[in-house]
Write a structure and sequence with these properties.
With 324 residues, this protein is α+β, with helices and mostly antiparallel strands. The chain contains seven helices and 13 strands. The strands form four sheets. The protein has a four-stranded mixed sheet. Strands 3-2-7-11 form a four-stranded antiparallel sheet, with no helix packed on it. Strand 2 and strand 3 form a beta hairpin. The radius of gyration is 22 Å and the shape is elongated.
């Protein structure tokens, strides 16, 4: 999500969302969901995250007087405004800390997309920060690895890899408690159109030469004098990727003259407003699927042991608000 702050035209309210808007977001995204999604704080926080996406992608864009909020700021507002969550406001720091830790345990899948000569790979730059990565994302509940990869690549690049994906061709690594599996997708034409299908998630998509991505330290690469590229989640896969390429025959012979510099194939548009530059794009809002993963232990973290999470009360409130 974008972390850009927008100036408020309503100083008396500080640009914060109204109670009416918060009630609508809480009702729409937190209460009006299947009962199983309200059984733990981790799942509830994923629902709050969807509400946050909607707030940033729609409410803030349509009303410049509203302030862009971090997820933690937005979570605190939702907990304060939603009666069934208000009893837990005092524990919001622990709840958010455990949720952040939980997210880093949800498996991630995606794809390493290679061109027809296997010389270039497709990388995406996130909306915030300078880091590049392969298109990827967290698994939904009960979602298979390859299905998640197809969905995430479509969301981040607009390209459907379903007919090119071989479930046996992948590179997998584990970072801490998180498993990351990237399927190797080959034979994609360089002139293939790529356009993200979600708002404020991807800032740029580009082809980069695999042999020019030389790791330096833990988080950067440099390309023969070209400005260094931050590749926190690319560098760990490069050695295995090069070994994979050596072991496979590309459909087209490697080109003798390939520019060193990456080729950008999509970039968010910039427009000037007042004294600053705002990055905009006209893509549909991000999908609101149930991305709470399928961890081995879905119960709240150990910081919740000193007080009781009353799922029954939340379910009763939901039934009252949305009677059958």
């Amino acid at each position: 999500m974008s972390g850009q702050q927008r100036s408020s035209t309503n100083p008396s309210k500080g640009g914060l969302p109204s109670q009416e808007l918060l009630d609508d977001l809480c009702s729409r995204f937190v209460l009006n969901v299947p009962k199983e999604d309200l059984q733990s704080f981790e799942r509830i926080l994923f629902l709050v995250e969807y509400a946050h996406w909607y707030y940033e992608d729609n409410s803030v864009e349509n009303d410049p007087s509203l302030k862009s909020l971090s997820l933690k700021e937005f979570t605190r507002l939702i907990f304060n405004s939603c009666e069934i969550l208000r009893p837990y406001v005092a524990h919001i720091d622990d709840i958010f800390k455990d949720f952040t830790s939980y997210k880093f345990r949800v498996p991630v899948t995606g794809a390493i997309i290679l061109d027809e000569s296997y010389q270039r790979c497709l990388l995406v730059k996130g909306w915030k920060g300078p880091s590049w990565s392969f298109p990827r994302g967290k698994k939904n509940k009960d979602e298979e690895d390859h299905t998640c990869a197809i969905r995430e690549v479509i969301e981040e690049t607009g390209f459907d890899i379903s007919n090119l994906l071989n479930e046996d061709e992948y590179i997998e690594m584990v970072f801490g408690q998180q498993r990351v599996r990237l399927y190797v997708i080959t034979g994609v034409k360089e002139d293939t159109p790529f356009v993200p299908q979600t708002k404020k998630e991807i800032r740029e998509i580009a082809w980069h030469r695999v042999d020019e991505l030389q790791p330096i330290g833990d988080n950067a690469v440099i390309s023969h004098g070209i400005t260094g590229l931050k590749l926190y989640m690319v560098a760990p896969f490069l050695s295995s990727l090069r070994s994979w390429i050596l072991a496979h025959q590309p459909p087209l012979a490697p080109k003798t003259q390939v520019p060193i510099k990456g080729i950008s194939v999509w970039k968010a548009k910039s427009s000037t407003m007042g004294s600053g530059t705002v990055v905009t794009e006209s893509q549909p809002s991000r999908s609101l699927s149930s991305s709470y993963g399928n961890p081995a232990n879905p119960s709240p973290g150990k910081s919740f042991r000193n007080f009781k999470f009353d799922a029954a009360a939340i379910l009763r409130a939901m039934e009252t608000a949305f009677p059958v």
